[in-house]
Amino acid sequence: QANIVGRDGHGGMPLDFAMRRDGERWRVWDIRMQGTSMVGGYKAQFARLLQTESYDTVIRRLRERVEALQP
After folding, report:
1. 16-62 pLDDT, tens digit each
2. What is the structure's pLDDT at 1?
3. Contact 54, 45 (CB under 8 A)
4. Which residue, among 36, 22, 32, has the nearest Cα to 2 in the 3D structure?
5. Rounded Cα–Cα distance for residues 69 and 48 (Å)
6. Would you give the DSSP letter of residue 24?
7. Which H or E run contains 30?
8. Residue from 68, 3, 63 nearest 34 by CA
9. Which residues, 6 or more positions from 25, have their beta carbon under 8 angstroms from its beta carbon?
10. Which residue in 30, 41, 44, 57 has the most C-beta neighbors within 10 A?
11. Could you count the other beta carbons within 10 Å of the beta carbon of residue 44?
12. Segments in 1-71 forming alpha helices (H)
């Protein structure tokens, strides 16, 4: 668990990390802020996309976005 503090040093907000062990390392699996899961949010976004677009279209768009981020 961590605490985000504002620039003024006040207004802390707790973050909870869900961790998984990967061999000798620990990896963050999910981050929750005020009970809201980042993974849950992403799942909901993909579920909405897949209601209106095909799986192949969604994957193609994701790949295009990743390629656009490459230097």
Report:
1. 999 999 999 999 999 999 889 999 999 999 999 999 999 999 999 99
2. 74
3. no
4. 32
5. 24
6. T
7. strand 25-33
8. 3
9. none
10. 30
11. 11
12. 38-52, 55-69
Contacts within 8 Å (CB) and 24+ apart, 20-24: none
- Burial letters 2-38, b for 16+ CB under 10 A, else e: eeeeeeeeeeeeeeeeeeeeeeeeeeeeeebeeeeee
Cβ proximity of 40 and 28 under 8 Å: no
Which structure tokens are listed for 29? 């699996």
DSSP assignment letter at 59 = H
pTM of the shown model = 0.63
In this predicted structure, the answer to whether residue 67 has a pLDDT above a threshold of 90 is yes
